[in-house]
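Job type: complex structure
Entries:
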Amino acid sequence: MKVISSLKEMTLFSKKASAKGSIIGFVPTMGYLHEGHLSLVRRAKKECNVVVVSIFVNPSQFGPKEDLAKYPRDLKRDLALLRPLGVDVVFYPQAKVMYPFGCAAYVDIGGNLTKKLCGAFRPVLFKGVTTIVAKLFNIVLPSKAYFGQKDAQQCVVLEKMVKDLNFPLQVVTLPTVREKDGLAMSSRNSYLAPDERKDAAVIYKSLMLARQMIKKGVRSSIKIKSAMIKELNTVKHIELQYISIVKAETLEDLKTLSGEIIIALALKIGKTRLIDNIRLKL
Amino acid sequence: MKVISSLKEMTLFSKKASAKGSIIGFVPTMGYLHEGHLSLVRRAKKECNVVVVSIFVNPSQFGPKEDLAKYPRDLKRDLALLRPLGVDVVFYPQAKVMYPFGCAAYVDIGGNLTKKLCGAFRPVLFKGVTTIVAKLFNIVLPSKAYFGQKDAQQCVVLEKMVKDLNFPLQVVTLPTVREKDGLAMSSRNSYLAPDERKDAAVIYKSLMLARQMIKKGVRSSIKIKSAMIKELNTVKHIELQYISIVKAETLEDLKTLSGEIIIALALKIGKTRLIDNIRLKL
């Protein structure tokens, strides 16, 4: 397993691999890896000849009051987790190498897609994400790129970017990996104090409640949201940011549920912001 | 010479050529080709194994009151000009194929670079250019892309885009090709009535006057601009949009000339907007 920090070296590696006919699978991460990331790597390993994992905490997707400085980092641990999986390259660039000219050029998505759900609470997030992912795609030159369904809006946004800008690759989205009590795995779970961690299980509980209601035939968005809010409020110190029930492909709000839908929510437990969602076919 | 209209077919062609070790040279155009375009094609042919020329009048770079509808088009003539040059592929996509999902994702450049000079008069121009060129780069996958110095600001903007977003290719800028009387070749010259065409020679005259003054030691931007305006005003029906004297790399305005500079101007003769520039090393 090679660790590459140089952009040129990374691109050269990928060009050589492609010239040999290799399919390059790419898993972009911000490090502090968990089973969610590792499930992406395992799938990439199955589907591709060469697997590249990037570890880069991207400054441009954090707002000025967000957790860039304290975002957890542990390269040694990450490398130890990736080595047994047969990863070919860990791409680990420095911020000054990724943004040496400042950040003048950028990729963004017009319209509503990036302004709702998480975009409403983190206004610079998706512009930062699309820009860094476009940069990484151009450096790593993958045929397939792997993302986790936990970041549901990010997946839709990146699918849109790839289609609209004709990136020559396929976006693969894989299911959210969860802890035993249902909490979606996230590097940010490490922020939670023990009592907060316990309370956080209510997020998935509220999503399961929604699923149950839908199974029983409820189709009213408002009814489902109300029940979820009631469930979430059984726990103290939760600050709900949003619950949205939307079309899976376009993230359009649904009053009456039908087709492929995503139920997504974001909330704060103490100072930690967590997100989760489920995707259902009605 | 193949004519390809399908995006998938274009990308497949390029991937196969790259896999064989070919260097792909790319000349993006809006068609209605002139010697300026052909000089780019000839250079690409010298430096690359495979040459792709795209012909696409890009709607997204025209403002609502601009000349999209009347922009000159003549595919048959363009193909006849390209065939003898040994072009491998003419990529000729339809607008509905390039923008089938609307135009939600886009590439743009923050800061001043796209807001000054032509950007001040054509506010959607550069966002349209960076977006379409990013799309074309992702479809054609070139190693080298060729642009004419006549569009000086476009060259700087695209260099910035390629660097900031890490496109795996080299931008090559070649000198402006001129008519006998010095008028920069442009597809839009076809709009000019005979008397306007005659008058248009004053543009290059004014640039040559600036060069002479600089040779004689003048370094004051204002003095040079004043002399140019006087020269331009020897002709009737000219509506000057700007004369700018800027650093070549950053397009920063210069009061006192030094280093690599560009003297650029835009004006209207009748209804036709023309641009020109010279680049000098002091």
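Summary: Chain B has ten helices and ten strands. Chain B touches chain A through 32 residues (CB under 8 Å).
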